[in-house]
Write a structure and sequence with these properties.
This protein is α/β, with parallel strands linked by helices. It contains five helices and four strands. Strands 2-1-3-4 form a four-stranded parallel sheet, with helices on both faces.
């Protein structure tokens, strides 16, 4: 039985909760166990994943995959660029350095309308579900190559 850690960013909470709803529905449908933690925003996601992974090395809960869920909407400053770049870089470094399954489940959009178009379950375009599916596919690939 696989176990996933969902790391949810608290910023843009309503949008992220909709992504979470889609991801959880999918994981429950296929019988995958999951835990969930919340961090302040997308920037903090890699740090939280790193903490969870380090904890597993010391006897804590071990996860087969990590599913970060967040949303970053472009504003009037270049803060958007830093958050998007650094969260992606942090996630990729963790994934490559430690052979971790981490799907980049952070929406990076120009405005709230684009975010909702990608998050709403009712329109059939919920990226949360897609992120959960991608996570499971990567876990299968990791198993195929016998990486532990």
């Amino acid at each position: 039985m696989h176990r996933i850690l969902i790391v949810k960013a608290g910023f843009y909470e309503e949008i992220v909760n909709e992504l979470l709803r889609g991801a959880v529905q999918h994981l429950q449908m296929i019988g995958v166990k999951y835990d969930q933690i919340t961090v302040p925003g997308a920037f903090e996601i890699p740090g939280a994943i790193s903490m969870a992974f380090q904890s597993s090395l010391k006897g804590g809960v071990s996860y087969d995959g990590y599913l970060p869920l967040g949303c970053v909407i472009r504003g009037e400053t270049n803060h958007y660029d830093y958050i998007c770049s650094e969260s992606a870089r942090g996630i990729m470094q963790l994934s490559l350095r430690n052979n971790l399954v981490i799907v980049y489940g952070i929406l990076t959009v120009e405005n709230a309308q684009q975010a909702w178009e990608r998050a709403k379950i009712e329109n059939g375009k919920n990226k949360g579900k897609e992120f959960a599916e991608a996570c499971m596919k990567m876990i299968s690939l990791r198993c195929r190559f016998s990486i532990t």
